[in-house]
Write a structure and sequence with these properties.
Helices cover 70% and strands 0% of the residues. With 440 residues, the chain is mostly helical.
Length: 440
């Protein structure tokens, strides 16, 4: 007979004081919020495994493009193959996340990762031995079963820190900074491996890192959230406020996708194509630094209002690259503008993920956060297409209007969410009160 919950021992939440006996002095928790975060039993172990597994996410696309374009001489084919994988992931990822919520992270993430690894290896072999083009699409589509490792890590934090909303805020900030770091280092590592060793090196190293990281992460069973066996579960899309929030994630993803394409085109137009990646890395660095700083704060405003303020700040700061490109035309000035503009994206994503955690029904947190990531990926694809089209028709300088317009579009759902009365908080998510306050 199945039980609804695990009977494994649960780690003590960070807000609980340690027990003392006799005259033993009580150990005071560290003042630094990040030190308090990693004082949670098992936190360092699952974080290390998750970071190893997350780094290849930024490696696979550029590795596939360099491998396919180098062997087949067609960037169009390489782009179409990676776009097919992205579209397939948008369909498959929420389904994988639902299985994770229902059966547990270790039971689903490990086989799903192994299947995705086989897809990457199949792509490598098809490219290496000249298989027909359609096999490349089929092989890369198989990699869509890669689990949302970032979402699983956030779900563990939400479970471990369920009695401490302030610590959840710090954990979400750390996770966003980790995302920025992985997406900044992943493409650089992939390009180095493919260019220095051999075209398939990026894919091979990515597969090894992904499988190793997921196995390390899944082995930490003491911090895994308990599963909830339910005969039928409605999609988190039907939860109060989720559709509006996901629209905001799509618009935010369009900011990322358009900025990447337009910046590479701007650098190429000035004869410095190789510098495009370094300039974009500055945007990620600014976002990661701002995310870590944001995690040390204890904002007391409702999360809906904070999300509106963050999106408004992002809309304002996204005008800086447009102004830098139009007024100076200098890649150095543009780099500084992107560094500043990136400082608004991490707080926006951190607050948005906090709202996702609070609005997702109990026992479906992985699925809810995967839907948010899917929205971002869809937005990235749309933004990249819109940015590339405007680059061709009006030039890269004018195309910086696309991320500005995308950020402005994100304001509408954020404003709608801030004006509506928040619903009662779902129980069991470990994500705080309905008001979303993080007062000290």
């Amino acid at each position: 007979m199945q039980q609804d919950h695990d009977t494994r021992p649960r780690p003590r939440p960070t807000g609980t004081a340690p027990e003392t006996t006799g005259t033993t002095p009580e150990r005071r928790p560290p003042r630094n919020p990040y030190r308090r975060l990693f004082a949670v039993p098992g936190a360092r172990a699952f974080t290390l495994g998750n970071l190893v597994a997350r780094l290849p996410v930024g490696m696979f696309s550029i590795s596939a493009v360099m491998m396919i374009a180098g062997a087949r001489g067609s960037y169009a084919l390489a782009g179409a193959v990676t776009a097919t994988g992205l579209a397939t992931m948008a369909v498959v990822a929420p389904w994988i996340a639902r299985l994770v919520d229902r059966y547990g992270q270790a039971r689903i993430a490990v086989p799903a990762t192994l299947f995705a690894a086989l897809g990457s290896l199949a792509l490598l072999l098809c490219v290496r031995y000249g298989a027909p083009d359609w096999t490349l699409f089929a092989a890369y589509a198989a990699t869509a079963t890669t689990p949302n490792t970032g979402g699983m890590s956030r779900a563990r934090w939400a479970y471990l820190l369920r009695d401490d909303p302030g610590a959840v805020h710090t954990a979400n900030s750390f996770e966003q900074a980790a995302d920025e770091l992985c997406f900044m280092l992943g493409p650089v590592l992939a390009a180095f491996l493919c260019g220095t060793l051999f075209p398939e090196a990026g894919t091979l190293v990515g597969v090894v890192l992904l499988v190793t990281g997921v196995l390390l992460f899944a082995a930490q069973r003491s911090t895994e959230p308990p599963v909830h066996h339910r005969p039928r579960m409605k999609s988190p899309l039907r939860a109060h406020g989720m559709p509006t929030l996901l629209v905001g994630f799509v618009a935010t993803g369009a900011v990322f996708g358009s900025m990447e394409v337009v910046t590479v085109a701007f650098a190429d137009a000035r004869g410095h194509q190789a510098a495009g990646g370094a300039v974009l890395a500055l945007q990620a660095a600014g976002s990661g630094a701002a995310g870590l700083l944001y995690g040390t704060l204890r904002p007391a405003a409702r999360a809906e209002r904070r999300f509106l303020l963050c999106v408004a700040g992002m809309s304002v700061l996204m005008t800086l690259p447009l102004l830098a490109a139009a007024l100076s035309g200098s890649l150095v000035v543009l780099a500084g503008a992107l560094l500043c503009a990136g400082m608004a994206t991490a707080p926006t994503m951190v607050t948005g993920m906090t709202l996702v955690q609070r609005r997702t029904p109990e026992g479906q947190l992985n699925e809810g956060m995967t839907l948010a990531v899917t929205g971002i990926l869809g937005g990235i694809a749309c933004g990249a297409a819109a940015g590339g089209r405007l680059v061709e028709h009006a030039g890269p300088t004018a195309a910086y209007a696309v991320p500005v317009a995308a950020a402005a579009c994100a304001l509408l759902p954020a404003l709608y969410g801030a004006l509506r009365t928040p619903p009662p908080a779902a129980k069991g998510n470990g994500s705080g009160s309905a008001e979303g306050g993080l007062a000290p």
